[in-house]
Amino acid sequence: xxxxxxxxxxxxxxxxxxxxxxxxxxxxxxxxxxxxxxxxxxxxxxxxxxxxxxxxxxxxxxxxxxxxxxxxxxxxxxxxxxxxxxxxxxxxxxxxxxxxxxxxxxxxxxxxxxxxxxxxxxxxxxxxxxxxxxxxxxxxxxxxxxxxxxxxxxxxxxxxxxxxxxxxxxxxxxxxxxxxxxxxxxxxxxxxxxxxxxxxxxxxxxxxxxxxxxxxxxxxxxxxxxxxxxxxxxxxxxxxxxxxxxxxxxxxxxxxxxxxxxxxxxxxxxxxxxxxxxxxxxxxxxxxxxxxxxxxxxxxxxxxxxxxxxxxxxxxxxxxxxxxxxxxxxxxxxxxxxxxxxxxxxxxxxxxxxxxxxxxxxxxxxxxxxxxxxxxxxxxxxxxxxxxxxxxxxxxxxxxxxxxxxxxxxxxxxxxxxxxxxxxxxxxxxxxxxxxxxxxxxxxxxxxxxxxxxxxxxxxxxxxxxxxxxxxxxxxxxxxxxxxxxxxxxxxxxxxxxxxxxxxxxxxxxxxxxxxxxxxxxxxxxxxxxxxxxxxxxxxxxxxxxxxxxxxxxxxxxxxxxxxxxxxxxxxxxxxxxxxxxxxxxxxxxxxxxxxxxxxxxxxxxxxxxxxxxxxxxxxxxxxxxxxxxxxxx
Length: 634
Ligand SMILES: *[C@@H]1O[C@H](CO)[C@@H](O)[C@H](O)[C@H]1NC(C)=O
Ligand SMILES: *[C@@H]1O[C@H](CO)[C@@H](O)[C@H](O)[C@H]1NC(C)=O
What we know:
One of its GO terms (biological process) is protein localization to membrane. It is found in: Golgi apparatus; Membrane. It is a multi-pass membrane protein. Belongs to the nonaspanin (TM9SF) (TC 9.A.2) family. It comes from Dispira parvispora. Strand 13 (about 160-165) and strand 14 (about 170) form a beta hairpin. The model has no long low-confidence stretch (mean pLDDT about 85). The strands form five sheets. Strands 3, 4, 5, 8, 9 and 12 form a six-stranded antiparallel β-sheet that branches. The protein has a five-stranded mixed β-sheet with strand order 1-16-15-18-7. Strands 13-14-17 form a three-stranded antiparallel β-sheet, covered by helices on one side. The protein is of the alpha+beta class. It has two domains: about 40-265, no CATH class; about 330-630, no CATH class. The chain has helices at about 5-25, 80-85, 115-125, 260-265, 270-305, 315, 335-360, 370-380, 380-395, 400-430, 440-465, 490-520, 525-555, 560-570, 570-585, 590-630, and strands spanning about 40, 45, 45-55, 60, 90, 95-100, 105-115, 130-135, 140, 140-145, 150-155, 160, 160-165, 170, 175-185, 195-205, 230, 235-250. It is built from 16 helices and 18 strands. The longest helix is centred in the last third of the chain and has 41 residues, at about 590-630. Bound molecules: 2-acetamido-2-deoxy-beta-D-glucopyranose (NAG) (2 copies).
């Protein structure tokens, strides 16, 4: 057998270790914790990030656009893993800002735009692409006034241009008026030094002006002629980019709550409506479960001991006849155990991330933080994955625990990995910044092989050493015949019920999540998300337990796989709803963004399926062990 020379293995482990540690450390990189003070006259860097659209899911790096002014030397900013995966590409720009100094008109450059690039500009403007610029970690915002014009709110980003769809002409925003809101911070220790300030707001007012010679908009003219782009296809055009800067003192906001304007969008009543709706569904189901439990624990037990069962009572006590079969290992248990392990892993990851976010630890000012933390947690939770997979594998009398651990560590992550890599092959070709760079891809694989997979095996090792979970009844040699089932317990109907009810609990919240993921809006209602998540878990457990109980009553003892599949069945609805969102809210005309959206939605639905399938599975397992313990047969 071929063996690696030992130095190859040693080098490889070293590479993996360094990369993985670097990634772990980098993922927790937080840009700046306290306020940054600028003294009067100090230069303030302006960074450009990316352009995004609410109509199509492909972002582009701002400096990858051929029609904008670029500095000669691009100075990239170091990004954390979450930012890279989100498609952020932050680069220092050549806009010269000076703290506290107004600039009325500065010319950035005159750019000669080739016909092809002008066409690209028109395409992006038509798709409503918004540019994200950053000053002092604040994204440049378009300002809105809602509710009797008194409350100012920010929407991050500003449009690259605007499009007149009647004349089919796109106009390029080549002038920006930057308003920097600041809060003066007196330096009490050193009186007499130049005044200091901290930046509390960054507003961008873009303008399209055709004024190639002078370079700046003639603001005395009522409506200056605008700069069209992408209409003349046969020759290049020269466009002058310019900007003005106004420093405005704003004492209504302080540095601590400067993000509030980005976050106060006032949809709260909708969230509450969704929660009331969800609680209602959940309580209804809880009632059904309570009735069942009461029957099981009181009336049924009493009747069973009387031993003169009437035929019509069999319907509710049928499940007791299954004592010799109910814990019979499922077919394909070697597949179910790894899926359960991965479900537990995803659940712990999602739960912890949401909790951290709800506690305000992952605020939007920590760009990319949510994704970085989620990834690190996913890797660390590999240990729970291996553990639960091994325990269930042992219950089903599996013997090759290591093989099971390897399947757990590689099957589901492998599916995710191959799907993401496949989509990226296409995204690379489209030049979008959401394509995962090769280096990042390498780091991700190294983390998977180097940390995640060993943790799964470690977890499986511990899980395998635990006692087998005990069952209150013994399994017979010969499987019992399953009688014909009533129509309402057929698989498609059960699937529909167990899928539709939990989906009804979450679809309102899901709309906001889709919006924040695909349209790059800040999602900040994590408190609501925790509430809805808890209600969802309760609902999934209740509906699955009810359906499986009815199924046991009609003497069908095949419940292992069913509880898993029923629990996760809302995934179908979630995927369909994502596609509905795709067709109604986005306007994607190209293949690559459509493919990316579909594949990522499928993966999200699959992750949901694993999570909630496992929740339902373990709850049903617990429930069945309890009811069979209660009857104490023989
Ligand atoms: C800059 O312009 C704003 C708005 O016109 C004005 O309030 C402010 O005093 C100006 N600042 C300086 C330093 O001139
Ligand atoms: C700006 O417009 C006014 C009014 O049309 C005109 O008098 C002035 O010369 C223009 N200034 C420049 C710099 O073009």
